[in-house]
Amino acid sequence: MKNNGLQSQLNKLRKWPIYLIPFLAFWTVLEFWINFYAGIVMIALDISYILFFIWWILQWNSSISQSLVHFAQGFHEEQKDQLTNLPVPYAVFDGEGDLFWSNHAFDELVPEGLEGDETVAHLLPYLSKNLPQDQIKKSEHIQWNDRAYQADIQRISLEEPLYSLFLFDETSHLAALKEIEEQKSVIGQVYIDNYEEVMNSAETVRQSLLAALIERKINKYFANYDGVVRKTEKDKFIVFMRKKSLLEIQEDRFSVLEDVKTLNIGNNIAVTLSISMGTDGGSMEQNNEYSRNAMDLALGRGGDQAIVKTPEYTKYYGGKTQQQEKNTRVKARVKAQALRELMVSRDQILIMGHKIPDMDSFGAAVGIYRAAATLGKRVHIVMNELSSSIKPMIARFQNNSEYPADLIINNEKALTLLDGNTIVIVVDVNRPSYTECSALLDKAATIVVLDHHRQGGETVRKATLSYIEPYASSASEMVAEILQYFNDNMKIRPIEAESLYAGIVMDTDNFVNKTGVRTFEAAAFLRRHGADVTRVRKLFREKIEDSKAKAITVSNVEMFEDCFAFSICPGDGIESPTIVGAEAANALLDIIGVKASFVFTEFNDTIYISARSIDEVNVQLIMERLGGGGHLSIAGAQLKNCTAEEAKEKVQETLLEMLEEGAI
């Protein structure tokens, strides 16, 4: 810009005498008009002026050119000297990385110089792959000689391409930013999950000592990381610390979760904690909100774990053990009454489960249908693609005159029926993307979620009522309990009781897996209302093709790390290959030494992973790494744009990574 300005000024200086010529011509004409002889004199003066102007231009141009050359030479030498002594490392190199020129600051970074065949690319390997192809400056952040630099590279406009390189030392700047980051505030919460149960399991005289020991464990742990703990209730604490301390605790993977379980002064039940941490918010209030949300998530996932929540991510720690079943039904009664109040205030109920519904999803939906029908409401169950495992049960409803013809509807029909006076009830799933029709959740004004799977990062955020109990064996068990408190005169038809009973049988693998006292109580309640065990058993008989596919899956099992069983389920010729894959995963657990099983099934251009375990491995944590979720012992995930073999490799890589971290 400055060079262009100087050139413009010089051009104006050269041209200004020319601008006088029209004025002299006008003045000459005027002189002729006044007096002829005066005009002759004026012409002579004009000719003299022009001759002088030509002579002056020739002399001036020569002098100015010489001055400019001397100025340019001096300026170039001064500029080169300034660049040579510039405290910022600077170098020029060619497209091969060979050094063309460098200043003293750059040479100081490489005291021994570039010897032999060494190039700038040897010192900064990334350069050869990241050279700019135009005049736009490119910036990279690199590490060199234990220092951090911002490397600015720009192409120089010459016939042979050359590149200029500036290295700006940002080590101190990054250290300051890191220090600021580490000093950010963190707000946490600590809940004792089973305080009442633990205290009741200990002798009365030891309860106060046990409470003091628990509190001491918590205080001492966080004090070691420069944290401050304050007790807010008998089983609740709030924690304040810096982010630097939180990062150290994350590296320790919240060992207090396991340490507190070692407390035993006569208590028959181990103490478990739920910990939540919120940070990186714009204010203390926002960090506190993150902490509360993380605690809700930790409790919804069954407790005995720590969750760190920021605006960018949510990380999980612990959660390796099964949550102990609670004998009290207070929560079920409260949720049943809340659900009833919501139903009474609306005219229509839409019920939906997860995609490719199973017997538990359908049984829970039927139970909610009975509750809504008792109140005289219009009820529809949203289902699209039906699996072979539930078709026999659905046929009993479709061919029954006691049920409306439009009891089961598809997504399109559900969206047309949805209005402001409709409740959408989601059963057996709490992830919007896994539901039959996620669009209903976006448009519905009132949403209820009833599920027994642990919550993940994706949840139904607009739920008016949420009842998620990871300790429950199935969604059908939860709905059976709700029905007991929903209405004093609740009458459940045998076909409905069998649907709920079948859901429990399926998710517990015939009362073998994840079964508690309340599971059998729910089953007894359904039996009293006419559930036929024999008829339910017949529902679970499988086709010969499914049986063969399951046998092939089991026979082709491969062991990984001597304790993980892997197999691929053939999907050709099978109506519901994902169901067969899940059953095969259960069967693989019967092999001695298998801690967890993973079966991969290809269906509709998607790889479905069925993960199962008994009690030693939390397969939910593994599936969450792959975008899935579920239970501690029953989980799954869906992978697209890959083959079954590629999906198997991903799971194996995830297992190795988690084993190295100590996460499983």
Number of strands: 23
Query: What overall geometry do the principal axes of the alpha carbons give?
Result: elongated
Nearest-integer average pLDDT: 84
Through-space gap between termini: 64 Å
Strand content: 15-25%
Helix count, DSSP H or I runs of 4 or more residues: 23
**Unreliably modeled segments:** none
Adjacency order of strands in the biggest sheet: 7-8-6-9-10-11
Topology:
Layout: H1 2-34, H2 36-84, E1 90-94, E2 99-102, H3 104-109, H4 120-123, E3 138-144, E4 147-156, E5 162-169, H5 171-182, E6 185-192, H6 195-201, H7 204-223, E7 228-233, E8 236-242, H8 243-252, H9 256-259, E9 273-279, H10 284-300, E10 305-309, E11 314-318, H11 330-344, E12 348-352, H12 359-374, E13 378-382, H13 391-398, E14 408-409, H14 411-417, E15 422-427, H15 438-443, E16 446-451, E17 465-468, H16 475-486, H17 494-507, H18 517-528, H19 533-539, H20 544-555, E18 558-560, E19 564-569, H21 577-588, E20 596-603, E21 606-613, H22 619-625, E22 629-630, E23 634-640, H23 644-661
